[in-house]
Amino acid sequence: MAIQIHAPVNRPVERDWRSAIGRGLRGCCPRCGQGRLFRGFLKPVESCAACGEPMHHQRADDLPPYVVITIVGHIVVGGLLLAEKYANWSMGLHMAIWPALTVLLSLALMQPVKGGVIGLQWAVRMHGFGGEPASPERQPLPPSVQQS
Ligand SMILES: [Zn+2]
């Protein structure tokens, strides 16, 4: 029989991931919603100008392009199939619309989606957003864990 001991744990306050993602989607700091999140098209600021929250350790990496590909793929392929079924478009019209729509949608969605991903990372305290170093595996183990 296992005995469970519930010791008091110092847990950090939970962050609202919905508002953090929403602020990121709008290009605002996920913490305060006031400062800008990007200083370039896809380059986040070093830290929020309004609240000082560091952003340099975000690691959105490849997730924003994957999300954008999924969204744009569903819109473009769905639209193409609907146009094929219900409209009698020429091949030239298809070739004019779908590649251009793909490029425009991808460019329009990339920054908001990256902001949303950074907002999610902030909300769940990933990659240094929890106040601890971004790579805890590189930190020395505390004395209570070290083996002698
Ligand atoms: Zn801020």
Structure overview:
This protein is an all-alpha fold. The chain has one domain. 45% of the residues lie in helices and 0% in strands. The chain contains 3 helices and no strands. It has helices spanning 17-25, 63-86, 91-123. The longest helix has 33 residues, at 91-123. The chain is elongated and about 70 Å long. The structure holds zinc ion. Zinc ion binds at residues 29, 31-32, 34-35, 48, 50-51, 53.
Count helical runs: 3
- What's the pLDDT, averaged over the residues? 86
The distinct ligands, each listed once, are: zinc ion
- What summary fits the major beta sheet? none
Q: What's the gyration radius in Å?
A: 22 Å
Q: In percent terms, what proportion of residues is strand?
A: under 5%
H-E string: HHH
How many distinct folded domains?
Answer: 1
What's the β-strand tally? 0
Distance N to C terminus: 31 Å
Low-confidence stretches: 134-138
The backbone outline, from C-alpha atoms, is: elongated
Percent of residues in helices:
40-55%
Question: Structural class given helices, strands, pairing?
Answer: mainly alpha
Could you give the topology of this structure?
Layout: H1 17-25, H2 63-86, H3 91-123
This protein binds zinc ion.
Residues 29, 31-32, 34-35, 48, 50-51, 53 line the site of zinc ion (ZN).
